[in-house]
Design goal:
alpha/beta; eight-stranded mixed β-sheet
C-alpha cells in the first residue's frame, strides 16, 4: 500500500502452533505473511489452508493461496517484520540463520517462552532491532490446518519506538499489543504462570480439568512459592498480569475446589480441550522447554547459592517423561513427591544443610 508506513511483509520464523496462529491471524487481516517451518506443516497448510478458532467462538479461514510457506529463510530478506516463534532450544540456530538472511532495518520480535531468547537473538543480530514479546494464551493444533486459541490474553511487548509502526497491523488482526518499559518483570510474571506447564504435562489432563483439582493446584503453588521466594530475595520485580498480585496466586491455588471455581474463575476461562504446550511436546515425542521454565528457577537458585528442589524435581520428572516415563500422575501422588523433595521443615528456596 503506497504511503502506508506500516509493515505489510511479515515472516514468521517457526511455524508451530503459536507461529501458525499468529501468522494466520495477520494474513487474514491483510498482511503479506510467509510462514517458515517444517515441510510437514507446509504440506498440511497447502492441503487444507488455515482454520483459526478461539474459545469465544471466532472462526477464521485463510486459504492456502493467501499465505506463503517456506522451509528456508529467503523471505526474511524482504520482510519488514520477522516474528520468531521457534522453541527455545532452537534460538541460537535461528539467530545464525537470520544473521545471514535479514535485510537492513528489519525488526525482529521474539514471541517465545523463557527469559533470554531475545538476548540470544540480539547477540546474533547486532545490527537489528530485536524485541521481546510474550504470548499469554495457549494454542492447540487440531490437525488439518486447524489451530485453536484455548485461553485468553493480549500480547505483551517491550517498549520501543519501532512498536507503533506494526502495532496497528496486529490490532487489525485482533491481536492487541501492550508495550512495557520493564519487560523483564513481565517475563518473570509469565514464567510464574508457566510453571503450571510441567504440572499439566505430568497430569495428562486438559488444563481446565487439571486446574479444577486441588492437589494439582497445590503442586503448582509449591513451585510458585519457591520461585517467588527466590525472586523476592534477589529483589527482582514481577509484573501483575492477572487481577491478583503474583504473590497472592499461590494462596488462591490452595483453596478448596468449590471456592476456587468462584474466586479463580478467570483462571478457569480455558477451552475444555486446551492443554499446555509441554503436554503437546511430550505427545509428539519432542524435547520440551522445561529448561526454559522450571529450569530458569533452578538456575536462579544456583546463582543465589541456594536450591530450588521443587522446580528441580519437575525438571527431572519431565526429563523422565520425555524418555517414556510416567505421564499420568495423580494429583495426590505428584504433590506428595514434590513435598518430599523439600524435606521436613525445609523452606522453599533454601539449601538444606547436610
Amino acid at each position: 500500500m503506497s504511503g502506508d508506513p506500516r509493515p505489510r511483509r511479515i515472516s514468521v520464523f517457526g511455524a508451530g502452533s503459536i507461529g501458525c496462529y499468529l501468522g494466520g491471524r495477520l494474513a487474514a487481516a491483510g498482511a503479506e505473511v510467509t510462514l517458515i517451518g517444517r515441510e510437514r506443516v507446509g504440506a498440511e497448510i497447502r492441503d487444507h489452508g488455515l482454520r483459526l478458532t478461539d474459545l469465544h467462538g471466532s472462526d477464521i479461514r485463510v486459504g492456502a493461496s493467501d499465505i506463503a510457506f517456506d522451509t528456508g529463510a529467503e523471505s526474511v530478506a524482504t520482510a519488514d517484520l520477522v516474528v520468531v516463534s521457534v522453541k527455545s532450544a532452537g534460538t541460537p540456530e535461528a539467530g545464525a540463520t537470520l544473521a545471514s538472511a535479514l535485510g537492513p532495518g528489519t525488526v525482529v520480535v521474539s514471541a517465545q517462552n523463557g527469559l533470554g531468547n531475545a538476548d540470544t537473538l540480539r547477540a546474533a543480530l547486532p545490527g537489528q532491532v530485536v524485541l521481546a514479546a510474550m504470548v499469554p494464551f495457549n494454542v492447540v493444533h487440531r490437525g488439518h490446518g486447524h489451530f485453536h486459541q484455548g485461553s485468553e490474553g493480549d500480547l505483551e511487548i517491550e517498549q520501543h519506538p519501532a512498536v507503533p509502526a506494526f502495532a496497528s497491523v496486529f490490532a487489525d488482526a485482533g491481536l492487541q499489543l501492550h508495550p512495557h518499559d520493564d519487560f523483564r518483570s513481565v517475563q518473570w510474571a509469565k514464567l510464574l504462570l508457566n510453571l503450571n506447564n510441567p504440572v499439566n504435562a505430568l497430569s495428562g489432563l486438559p488444563l481446565r480439568e487439571e486446574l479444577s483439582r486441588r492437589p494439582f493446584r497445590r503442586a503448582l503453588a509449591l513451585a510458585q512459592r519457591e520461585a517467588l521466594a527466590l525472586l523476592t530475595a534477589r529483589g527482582i520485580a514481577v509484573a501483575q498480569l492477572t487481577p491478583l498480585p503474583p504473590q497472592w496466586i499461590p494462596r488462591l491455588l490452595t483453596v478448596p475446589d468449590g471456592v476456587f471455581r468462584v474466586a479463580g474463575s478467570r483462571m478457569l476461562a480455558i477451552d475444555p480441550h486446551a492443554r499446555s504446550s509441554m503436554w503437546d511436546d511430550l505427545e509428539a515425542g519432542r524435547r520440551t522447554e522445561v529448561d526454559w521454565i522450571s529450569g530458569e528457577i533452578v538456575r536462579l537458585a544456583e546463582a543465589s547459592g541456594t536450591a530450588a528442589p521443587v522446580n528441580a524435581r519437575l525438571v527431572a520428572l519431565i526429563r523422565e517423561a520425555e524418555a517414556g516415563g510416567n505421564r499420568q500422575w495423580s494429583g495426590d501422588a505428584l504433590l506428595a513427591d514434590l513435598r518430599s523433595q523439600r524435606g521436613p521443615g525445609k523452606p522453599a528456596g533454601k539449601r538444606q544443610r547436610s
